[in-house]
Amino acid sequence: MIPPRFDYHVPSSVGEAITMLTELGSDAKLLAGGHSLLPMMKLRFAEPAHLIDINRIPELRGIREDGADIVIGAMTVENDLIASPILQAKAPLLCEAALLIADPQVRNRGTIGGDIAHGDPGNDHPALAMALDASFLLQGPNGQRSVKADDFFVGTYMTLLEENEIMVEIRLPALAAGTGYAYEKLKRKTGDWATAGCAVVMQKTGDKITHVRIGLTNVGPTALRAEAAEQVLLNQPFGAETVKAASEAAMAICDPAEDLRGDIEYKTAMAGEMFKRAINKAWSRCQ
Amino acid sequence: MTKKLITVTVNGKKEEKAVEPRTLLVHFLREELNLTGAHISCETSHCGACTVDIDGQSVKSCTHLAVQCDGSEVLTVEGLADKGVLHAVQEGFYKEHGLQCGFCTPGMLMRAYRFLQENPNPSEDEIRHGMSGNLCRCTGYQNIIKSIQYAAKKLQESVAA
Question: How large is the ipTM?
Answer without folding.
Answer: 0.96
